[in-house]
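Please, structure for the following, as tokens.
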Amino acid sequence: MQVYNSLTRTKEPLPPAPGPVRMYVCGPTVYQRIHVGNARPFVVFLWMRNWLRAKGYEATLVENITDVNDKIYDAARAQGIPSAELAERATRWYLEDTDGLGLGRPDVEPLATETIPEIVALIEELVERGLAYESQGDVYFRVAAYPAYGELSGAKPEDMVAQEPSDLKEDPRDFALWKATKPGEDTFWESPWGRGRPGWHIECSAMAEKHLGPEFELHGGGLDLRFPHHENEVAQSRGAGRPFARMWAHNGMLELAQEKMSKSLGNIVSLHDALERWGREPLLLLFLGAHYRQPVEFSEDAMEQAKAQWDDFRTAFRVAERRPSAFGWSDFARALDDDFNTPNALAMLHDWRSAGQLELLGRGLTVFGLPSPQAVQVPGHVSESLFGKVTARLEAPAEVRELAERRQEARAAREVEEADRLRAEIDAAGWEVQDVAEGFRLVPRGR
């Protein structure tokens, strides 16, 4: 399997199975419900991990949670509650909402606040090496002392502007590793430089090393993190003598009207609301339809199209005649092995659907945590996927089954208008009645 390495700007092979392949992905800063764009790296790198495991790899995924940050302080102050309370509440929201995607969890989800000793120790090393300096309780990374700064993002030091303006810095390009406690901040930790808390970038360097070691195979995250966050991680970790990540993979952004979805722009749709409205399957298909490195448009039209695709897949058993497909499983695997090309894989799923190749279709859908059409046919059916068990939706309520039985009687009596009226009632209840040789089948309608 090969992956595009953002550091070298080329596709590079992963080590042969069984690896290991250890992956670290930057997770959310928790101060409100995450938006749909935040869900994309969560989905993409879980898919990657599970595909690697299916290929015989020992794959591990660590995805952090940043639970101390300026944004958390600001949001908590606006709500009049302690910052730790808000962070804990928003962490629960994050876990609940991403559980709704039905893909399972990363192997480790460390909190920044649980990694303070490792963070302080790493900062001390950087100070000892002359790559960091203390200034009135703050500690800053000395960018000028790290000549390789900018290699990951392509940014040139002479063209950079101040990341965090401060009169305490030697150089406007320097960035904070440790921040002294300021008025209005209600959490702090002791350190050699006084009470304070970590900067954002150093948290990930420390958490990655704690859970994956000083060197690991792949670091992932959103494209918007490449600079300055990931650039700073490289400088911190390699400056401290760690090889750190060998490869970097960045997913494209989710866009509303060609504008990046972000909390700062205020143009967000929460994952919770999207799942409530559309369900998980259309959202996963939206992500499948674009290569992970490219942007994805999130709109009413895009979600309607994804919903229509899911309706096609869940009713694939209706295809009257099975025919050969131009694609086999090896073609599907080849697409995913080539920088995880999900659009090509999705095209093959559609071909298998139209060809009535339900076995291949079901096997392919479960790669992405979607139930097979066979599972959808049988209410309550549980099928195995790379993500564990995928359960088809629940059996139709008794009142809906009664409507379907009355409709069957009306059809037998050739009461066409009554049969149509009962079908409309069943539709309104969220179910689709299908006429089959043994009578009828009830299938939940897509949202």
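The longest helix spans residues 36-54. Confidence is low (pLDDT under 50) at residues 377-383, 390-394.
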